[in-house]
Design goal:
The protein has 17 helices and 16 strands. By secondary structure, it is an alpha+beta fold. It has two domains: 15-172 and 228-317, Bira Bifunctional Protein, Domain 2 (BirA Bifunctional Protein, domain 2), CATH 3.30.930.10; 329-422, Anticodon-binding domain (Rossmann fold). The chain has an eight-stranded mixed sheet. A five-stranded mixed sheet has the order 13-12-14-15-16, with helices on both faces. It binds one RNA strand of 76 nucleotides through α3, β6, β10, β11 and α13.
Length: 423
RNA sequence: GUGGGUGUAGCUCAGUUGGCAGAGCGCUAGGUUGUGGUCCUGGAUGUCGAGGGUUCAAGCCCCUUCACUCACCCCA
């Protein structure tokens, strides 16, 4: 096996697939800018501490999925597994809250997690990330979900559903956790091995276990919603009311728990059915405690991440293709003199915005006509020795087979003119 | 990390009880000395994922390993 191979779980996004990526990126940027978000670009490497502190030491991401290594000086560095931690780090480091605590950012880029690859899951994957700092109001929670919904609808995706839940806050979460732990303890004979483990590491996770026996045992389990304090309850009700008012369809999903420690109150996920087990295309939530935890002041925040790769895959599954870019003109130059002229013409045409190609391999007219056809050329310019001598190049319309004769003195102007007339 | 499936031409895949490595598409050259798409004819392209074993003989059987893939776990 050839060793010069891409790393496992990494992939090349090839030109034949890039159009959808560009389309998604363009739509997202336009929408976010319209909604008042500013782009921010963040590094791919951070000190390990940035992620360990924010995501949670005991989470799977930090425990076993990060690409972590010492640099030459011995500092422990990590390839970012998600964007929010870096976003908060930047917000705090530049003391952005000092001049204006209310900030809205988005960023697009690669993330890295060393998991076993499968459908819709890669070790380098891309996220489109948006965060709002400094607003506690439930209106921005609803607004972010609305924004996701709008983006997906603009991309023509309809099989996506928003799931929302509230995880409570430090006031109400402890009571809930106590109640849940009590129940887990009493039912521990019936739980699957994974849930026995979760009981210790991340009790919330037992709520969305897929093993039927666990589901049955935990049917009566308390949920975060049962224990919400008055403020959290009101916050959640507002989110739901506003979404209804704006005709955003959603499912209240009390099994929706998110894996990162920093979430509080609103948690949401956009799910699809067309991607096998990887149902989450976007996910996010509120993290009112994280800015402070990362050394900043007590400032609330909320954000989401869209799984770019997954989104593109959903679109591919629904055959939402983007148009292939075809060629405007293919120049067939036969002989050395014609080839040299053809080179200058093609460059000039490129500069004038005409997508034009020429072939230098000295092939036959027939072979080049085939190539022009393969490239989808709208026109072919034929410049053979005869045409040069007689000062009469042939411009052939490949759809109508119509051919006109143009002078070899300044064919670029004639061609540009022809394109203007047709467009 | 655990389990299942799959590795044969650039792509999609056949390959029988172990007996000369194949097809379609694509590529390429012709079919009127200079006109594409359809059609016809010819041509090129293989470490049968890799390493080892069994055998007179292995793409096929056995062992090891790697990769891809799906699922679990977890998450976007």
């Amino acid at each position: 096996m050839n060793n010069m191979q891409i790393i496992r779980g990494f992939r090349d996004i090839l030109p034949e697939n890039i159009k959808l990526w560009q389309k998604v990126e363009k739509e997202a940027k336009e929408l976010f800018e319209d909604f008042g978000f500013d782009e921010i670009r963040l590094p791919v490497l951070e000190k390990t501490e940035v992620f360990a502190r924010s995501i949670g030491e005991a989470t799977d991401i930090v425990e076993k999925e990060m690409y972590t290594f010492p640099d030459r000086k011995g500092d422990k560095l990590t390839l970012r597994p998600e964007a929010t931690a870096s976003m908060v780090r930047a917000y705090v480091q530049h003391k952005m809250y000092a001049s204006d605590p209310v900030r809205k950012f988005y960023t697009i880029g690669p993330m890295f997690r060393r998991e076993r690859p499968q459908k819709g899951r890669y070790r380098q994957f891309y996220q489109i990330d948006a965060e709002i700092f400094g607003v506690e109001s439930a209106y921005v929670d609803a607004n972010l979900i609305f924004l996701l919904n709008e983006l997906f609808s603009r991309l023509g995706l309809s099989d996506l559903k928003a799931h929302i839940n509230s995880l409570g806050c430090p006031d109400c979460r402890p009571d809930f956790q106590k109640a849940l732990l009590n129940l887990l303890e009493s039912k521990k004979e019936e739980l699957c091995p994974d849930c026995i483990r979760r009981k210790e590491s991340n009790p919330l996770r037992t709520l969305d276990c897929k093993v039927p026996q666990c589901k049955e045992a935990l049917k009566e389990a308390p949920t975060t919603l049962d224990f919400l304090c008055k403020e959290c309850h009101g916050h959640f009700e507002t989110v739901k009311r506003v979404l209804k008012q704006q005709n955003v369809e959603f499912i209240e999903d009390k099994t929706l728990v998110r894996g990162l420690d920093y979430y509080t109150r609103t948690a949401f996920e956009i799910q699809t059915t067309s991607l096998g087990a990887q149902s989450a295309v976007a996910g996010g939530g509120r993290y009112d405690l994280l800015v402070k935890e990362m050394g900043g002041p007590d400032i609330p925040a909320i954000g989401f991440a869209i799984g770019f790769d997954r989104l593109v895959e959903v679109m591919e599954a629904l055959e939402k293709s983007a148009d292939k870019q075809l060629l405007d003109l293919f120049i067939i130059a036969l002989g050395d003199a014609a080839t040299e002229k053809g080179y200058y013409w093609s460059t000039d045409l490129n500069l004038k915005g005409i997508r034009c190609e020429i072939d230098y391999r000295g092939k036959s007219l027939k072979a080049l006509m085939k190539r022009a056809d393969k490239l989808g050329a709208k026109y072919v310019l034929i410049a053979g020795e005869k045409e040069i001598k007689e000062n009469a190049l042939i411009l052939r319309n490949m759809n109508t087979r119509e051919q006109i004769s143009i002078s070899a003195d300044n064919p670029v102007a004639d061609i540009v003119g022809a394109f203007k007339k047709n467009n």
